[in-house]
Amino acid sequence: xxxxxxxxxxLADLSNKLIYSAMAVYVIAxxxxxxxxxxxxxxxxxxxxxxxxxxxxxVAAAQAPAKGTKKVTVTVASADGxxxxxxxxxxxxxxxxxVTSGRDTVAEVDGPGAAGSSEKGDLAGRxxxxxxxxxxxxxxxxxxxRGLSVMRWPWGNMYExxxxxxxxxxxxxxxxxAAKKPVRWLGLPVLVAVILTLGLAVTVLYTESxxxxxxxxxxxxxIHVSTAIFCGGAxxxxxxxxxxxxGKDTYDRRIAAGRTTGPLGTPASVWQRLPAAATFDKLxxxxxxxxFPLWTFTIVAGAIWAEAAWGKYWEWxxxxxxxxxxxxxxxxxxxxxxxxxxxxxKAAYLALLAFSCWLFNYYGVNIxxxxxxxxxxx
Length: 378
Known about the structure:
Layout lengths: L8 H34 L7 H8 L3 E3 L9 E5 L5 E5 H6 L2 E6 L2 E6 L9 H32 L7 H21 L8 H17 L16 H37 L11 H6 L3 H34 L7 H20 L7 H24 L10
Antiparallel strand pairs: 1-5, 2-3, 4-5
């Protein structure tokens, strides 16, 4: 049987055109997000209440309550020079993240978002989201027609995997917005990553639409690879949160020390509009904690597929080895978070190392290292 004859060239060509169209829309959406941040920096940084203004000026602390006996209260300075005492519930309603460490309860305030108080910034942000949604529709069409052109799941090589991975990132971002989560600040880094991923896919990783070798004709392709795609998108989101946590925490430390100049002191309005450092830290940890079992399942599913295709569950193939190394580092990160001495920045550095392992496993191993997984091509 001639495998090339089972490829629909018209659908394959349509898929390519849709990918390039999606990339063009994503680029415009990225610039709209840039305008959102730019307009937002020109307006005052919005605050939701007088109490929040006091929280933004200085971190307030109070004694932690005895378990189950008292309400958590934090006293903060008001704009008129007085003080206001807020409960944990009121702090949460005002947009504050309450963090308890030992006997101290600290309140940190999330910023108002990329647009700040600028109406032009808010308009640019809403346009960016609309364009991202349009790009996602074109992108989904490209992935779908790629699969239909050969009547199989459209992630049989690195090009197809990259396209599906980039789509997963955009859909996850739009899904959070649809769920009314205030994460529009995530739009710019997500679109930058999507454009870079697709740019690398269409230039370096591109492979013509074709049928797969017999070893890949298995229902495990849908199970194993689709789970890996989801995990990759989630790990990337956690990576963004970790990097921003380190930046925001460094900014907060510099401001507390009275240092307002330097690379992290100059764009003050940018850092003030972002969520609190504790919010980033919590978001990164929760994503990694939720996704880790799925990454474990991905490795187990791959081992089962390997036994069906090659006759052995595990042969320390480079892909298998680096998948396991990635698993070990994420396991160390989660363990470190549960250890009192590894909170905050130390754990964040470990999370970055774990993501670096995942990134090398995805690009480095597939492109530069030859193994049993190489038969699918890049």
